[in-house]
Structure formats: C-alpha cells, structure tokens
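Model: Ready when you are.
Researcher: Fold this.
Model:
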Amino acid sequence: MNALILIVEDEAEIAEILDAYFTREGFRTVRAGDGQTALDLHLRLKPDLVILDVKLPKLDGYEVLAAIRRRDDTPVLMATALAEDIDKLQALRIGADDYVVKPFNPLEVVARTRAILRRTRAHVGATVIRAGKIEIDLTAHAAIVISEDGVRRKLDLTLTEFRLLAHMSRASNRAFTRAELVDACLPEGEAMERTVDSHISNVRRKLESATATGYLEGVRGVGYRLVPLA
C-alpha cells in the first residue's frame, strides 16, 4: 500500500496544493489544520511521514514534533515560513528529519519526502540495534549485554531507561544534549532536563553490573553519548 502522508497545515490553500501533488504522485494523504488534531490523527492512523508547519493553532509545530518523538520515530518534514537558522536548529534538535522553507516548490517537498522514506524504510525490519556488547531488541523491548564468553545478560530497565538506551544506540558516538533526550525519551510528566541525569546514572549502573563498563559517557557542557566499546 502506498505511503500515507499526514499534512499538518492551517493555511487551506497550501494544504490543498500539497494534497494535490502528493495524490498525483501516488501517495495517500490526510490533513490536519491544528496541532491537536495532528496528534490525534498521528496516533490513530500511524502515517508513514508527517509534513509539519510550525505556526499552528492549539499546539505549535515544535510541540507536535516533540510529542511525536516521545511516541515513535515517524519521519517528520518541517515545512514552514520560519527561515532563521535558529528555527531550523530547533526543529532538528527536537527530531525533525528535514526542513523546507516557504514559499517552496511542492515538487521539492515530494522529492524530499521520497528521499526520507527511502532512508527510513531501509531500516524497516531491522528491529535489533547493536552497539558493542549491547543488543537492543525493539520488538521484544529487551536490552541485553553479551559478555566476551557469550553469556547474555538481560538488563532490568524501566520504560524511560530503555527509551534512552535505544535512542542513543541508534546514533552511537553522537553527543546528545539533555534537552534532546528529554524531547525524545521522557514522558511529559518528567520533562525536566536534570531528570535525565538520574535516568542515565541508573542505566550506567545497570550496564556496568552486566560487564558493559564505560559505555555511557558524560560530555562536558553538552550531555551524554553512548560509546560502542568492543
């Protein structure tokens, strides 16, 4: 079945143009005119990709993006009139996959969408992430440390701890800011940057107890990174 694109845009004319171009190119589409409706449709329909404006009624695009990232890894292409570097960096920091500035060519938006889907679909079916001794099974929601002698030790992680470890394992060696980890992994009720320190400390302790010492590093002035040691 062709990919389902959720178009989140409060300007009806722009939404209709995007809808027409995506439909012509063989995509299925659904539209939302405000942030809350977008999140409701995302949860109910599970689209393959979201085209997301920033200036929206009820919830703005950054809030919608952060909420999506707390749920899953649905690709998100920001399409907005905000052209400043700080706006782009904000979107990418929260977890946007790409960013296009209005006025845009609808064909470019379709082309960027195809490129994002090619990248993300290349990982479909790859439900196991490996980083050194660590093996994370996303389907089974299990994290395992494999020792040098082949012994497999399952880590007893909370939901938030598992999300943090899985998220960092997807881009090992990358330094994540606390704000990034909050947006991607922590439930709304825990959304305080310093809360990350406590969760990371627990994950590090559990890794070390399973012989995976030195995997989680603090990065001064930034946050944390996962180093896939041999």
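Researcher: Now this one.
Model:
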Amino acid sequence: MSTEARAVAWIGGYPEDSGTGQQGIRLLTADEAGEAAETRWVGAAESPSWLARHHSAAVLYAAQESAGTLAAFRIVGTTLTPFDEIPAGEAVCHLLVGPDLLIACCYGDGDVVRVELHDDGSFGERSLAVPSIDPHAPEGDRQSRAHCAAPLGDGHIVVSDLGHDQLRFFDTADILQQIGTVVLPMGSGPRHLWVHSTSKVSVITEYSCQVITVERINEGPWRILSTVSLLVGDVPADAAGAELTGSSDGAVLYAGVRGPDLIVTLDATATTVLGRTPSGARWPRHHRQLGDRLLVANQESDEISVLQIDPATDLPGGVVGRISTPAPAHILAIDAP
C-alpha cells in the first residue's frame, strides 16, 4: 500500500459468515489516485451490519445484529476504542443518529428504539415505540420487522416495517409518538428509504423489487404516489431489493437488487428506470457513491466492487476495481456526518 494511502470509509458487515474468524469493523484505505485500496480490521464488534457517526463527537456507533446490542466507539485518528454498549432488540439492523438521540430498528422483533445521547456520545435513556399492528392481518401471526428509519425534519421520522408492509411516521420529541402510517401492498416488504423532501419519501421493497414513493399534501395524510418495478418481467424467487441511495448531484437514484445482482438507476423522481448495471459480484447488500465511483458491498463474494460513474449520465459502468473484505454489508464514508 502506498505511503500516501488515506482513510476512505468504515466497513461494517458479517465477517463471521466469511470464515475469517475476525469479527469487527474494518477501515477502507486507498491511495490518492483511488487505484490501490484495501481494508483492515480496526475494532471488535459482533455482526456490525450498520454504522453511524455522532453529529459532533468523534464517536462511531454499530448495530451489533447478532448480539442485539448497540456499541459506541471513540475515534482517534483511524483507531476505534469501545466505550459504551446497551441492549437494543433482536437483530438490530439500522441506525439513525440525530443531534441528541439515536433511533435503532430491529428486524427480529420489530422494535423501534429511541436512545438519548449524552454530549460525549455515550448512551442515555432508552424507550420503545408502540408495537406495529399488521394492517393486512391484525389478528394474524406475521412478525413485525422494523428495518430502516429516515429523518423528515422537525423531529419527525419515517420507519419501514418490512414484515407488516407499511411505513410508520413518528414524532421523536419526548417519546416515539406514532403520528401516521401508509399501508403498502401485502408481501411487498418495504426495506430502505430515500427522503426527497419532508413531504415525499421513496422506499425500496425487498420482496416485490419495486420502488414505491409516498407523499403528503398540505399536511394531509400520507398516500402512495407512484410505483416502479426494478426488474423486467416476473421477480425471480431469489431476488431481493436492498439499498436505495441518491447520486451526489441529486440527478438519479441507485437501487441495489440481490439475486440478479444489479444496480438499477432511476430518475430523481423514482418513476423511471434509466439503466441496469451488474453489481460486479454476488449479493449487493449496500452501495455508496464516493466521488466518481460507486462502491458496492457484495456480501456473499467477500468484496467491494468499484463501478465507474459516467459524469454525463450518472450511470454506473463496468467494474474498475475490486477490494477484498469479509462479508461487507455497509459502507460509511469516513467524513460522513
């Protein structure tokens, strides 16, 4: 590795699944040209499938999915030192960090957890939202599966419930007070969210492999605005929608689909598919644009593939680099807020 190597991103994932035996968070470094890149282990954590930064303190948080806990690490340069840990919920899989609180979503039991944060980044009081009620089968036995939370401004958030096929809206001011819902088609599996504005949100669905956009007008109820399919024809049995992100210039959205292993590019309104690009390896669980490259965390291939983005169209092209790393699941830019 070049002496000019710089820290690029924190990498979370499931390294125990890859047989390396070295569970924890890794650091991605690259040379100034972005050509030579590698990851190295920097902190012990159990299945750190999602990472997030504190807004002001030098603290990194990890959702320890297999342990069902939240872990906090102090950041000194590129060194991580664990300093706090609390229970979250079964299979905690996503974190949203605000100035003074953290929201954790738990896939296993459906809990949405509100945790107050102290000024030094340590954990404070913990409370839960009221449990989700399945709008399709209120007397049934489908498991609630909270999967992602996103901010809407003024202390409001939206949470996807993959198991109950709905979006839930909360005021986070003092407790998690539910203030609205949008019911999505049964069996769609809403997973990860992209916020266009305080009144418009898109969600990628794991099971139906669609992007569904919802909106509200004049403070009225939220409603479905549009639905677009990410695949052509019937959805294969092994297909699963994954991550939904926006390009750095705001012109397009990137949607990952596992199984077919694609990055699907949509227009900014999330209504039109502009292109479908192979992810470069197996099971693209997460992706993130860094500069003119799209980094794709291919969990089952134990690698991050690097796709070149066409500056004229924002479409990702072929693989221009491969970075070996065990079972990656999340890429967090080193300078992310």
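Researcher: Key takeaway?
Model: The first strand starts at residue 6 and ends at 13.
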